[in-house]
Amino acid sequence: MIRALLALLLALGIAKAAQADELRPGYLAFTQNDATHWTLVWKAPVRGGITAATQPVLPAGCSVVGEPIRAVQALSVVTTMKVRCAQDIAGRRIGLSGFAASQTDVLARIAPLGRPVQALRLTADAPMGVIEADPGRWQVAQTYFLIGTDHIIFGLDHLLFVIALVLLLSGFWTIFKAVTAFTVAHSITLVGTTLGFFGLPQRPVESVIALSILFLAVEIAKKDPDAPRLSERLPWVVAFAFGLLHGFGFAGALKEIGLPEGDVPTALLTFNLGVEAGQLAVVLATAAILHALRHFAARVLPLLVRATTYAIGSVAAYWFIERTFS
Q1: How far apart are the C-alpha atoms of 216 and 80, rounded to whole Å?
Q2: Nearest 5 degrees, angle CA 304-CA 149-CA 164?
C-alpha cells in the first residue's frame, strides 16, 4: 500500500509537471449582437489535451457566417466565428463534438440580449448543455463552485502546497490556524485582483508559487523536534504570506475563465467557496491517511513522509526552473 501511494505521487508529479501551473479549462462563449447575429469564441488551451477534433456544436437553426478567425493567445488557440440564428435559441443545445475523456473541462458562457447570462460546465460525460430562457443565479453558482473545486484538486501546485502544509505541522488546531490563514490570504488577493483593485504579472507569480512548495518541502526535510523552524513557530504567518501569492494564481485561473456579466458577485463568491471546499477535502484526506499510517504502519511512516517530501520538493524545483527560465 505504501509503495503504491508513493509510486502514484511520483507518477502524478512527473506526468503533470508540464501543465501543473494552472488548471486551464477550455472556454466557449456565445454572445448575441442583435436579433439574429451572434459571436462565438472557442478557446482551446494548448495544455488541456484538447485536439483539433473537438469542435463547437451550434444550436439548431444557427449557422456560421464567413470564415472563422484563428489566433494563438496565452497558450490557447482562439477561434472566433460570426453566427446567424434564424430563431430563438432558448431550449436548444450547445456544446462540443469530439470531446475525449482525457481532455480538460470546458466552460460555456451564453449571453443573450435582454436575458441573464448562463454558464455551463461541459465534460466528456456531458459535452452538450441546454440553453435556458432564465437560468437563474443558482445555475451560475453551481457551475463556478464546481470550477473552484476542480481548480484546487486538479491544480497540482496548489494541491501539493496544502499537502505539504499538513505534512509539516502536527495538531488539529495548529493545522486549522495555518489553513485558515492561507484561506483568508488567498481570498483577499483573489477578490482584489479579480475586481481590478491590484494585480501582479502571472508568470512571476507562478514561479514564486512553485518556490513556496519547495520552501515547505525543505522545512519538512529539516524538521527537528529540538529546534523548531520558522514555519513551525509561526505557521499561520508563513501560510498567510504564501496564501497571498496563491490568491494571485487563483485569480489568474478565474481570469482565463471569465465572469458572467450581471452575476459577478455570485460567481466570484461560489468560485472561492469551491476552492475552500476542495482545500478542506485535501486537508481531511491527507490527515486521515497520516492518522491511519500512524496506527497501522508507524515504523515506516517517517520513511514515507521523507520520500513524499523529496518527491514534492523535486517537482516544485522543476516547476520553479521551468517557469522562471522557459
Answers
A1: 43
A2: 25
Sorted by sequence, the CB contacts under 8 Å of residue 219 that are 6+ apart come out as: 168, 229, 230, 231, 232
Q: What pLDDT shows up at residue 189? A: 92
Of the pLDDT bands very low, low, confident and very high (cuts 50, 70, 90), residue 21 is very low
Locate all alpha helices (DSSP H) within the chain, ordered by sequence.
2-16, 136-154, 156-168, 172-194, 202-221, 230-233, 235-257, 264-296, 301-325
AA identity, residue 222:
K
Q: Cα separation of 295 and 279, whole Å?
A: 25
296: three-class secondary structure by DSSP: helix
Grid cell listed for 156: 497540482
- Interval 288-308: pLDDT, tens: 999 999 989 889 999 999 999
pLDDT on residue 195: 83
> Which residues does 307 contact at the CB level (< 8 Å), separation at least 6?
6
Q: Is 60 helix (H, G, I), strand (E, B) or coil?
A: coil
DSSP labels, 175-236: HHHHHHHHHHHHHHHHHHHHTTS----HHHHHHHHHHHHHHHHHHHHT--TTS--HHHHSHH
pTM of the predicted structure, to 2 decimals? 0.72
Three-state DSSP at 319 gives: helix
In one-letter notation, the amino acid at residue 291 is H
Q: Which residues touch 156 (CB under 8 Å, ≥6 apart)?
A: 12, 13, 16, 20
In whole angstroms, how large is the CA radius of gyration of the chain? 22
SS3 sequence, 62-89?
Answer: EEEEEEEEEEEECCEEEEEEEEEECCCC
CA distances (Å), origin 112, targets 58, 135, 200: 14, 12, 33
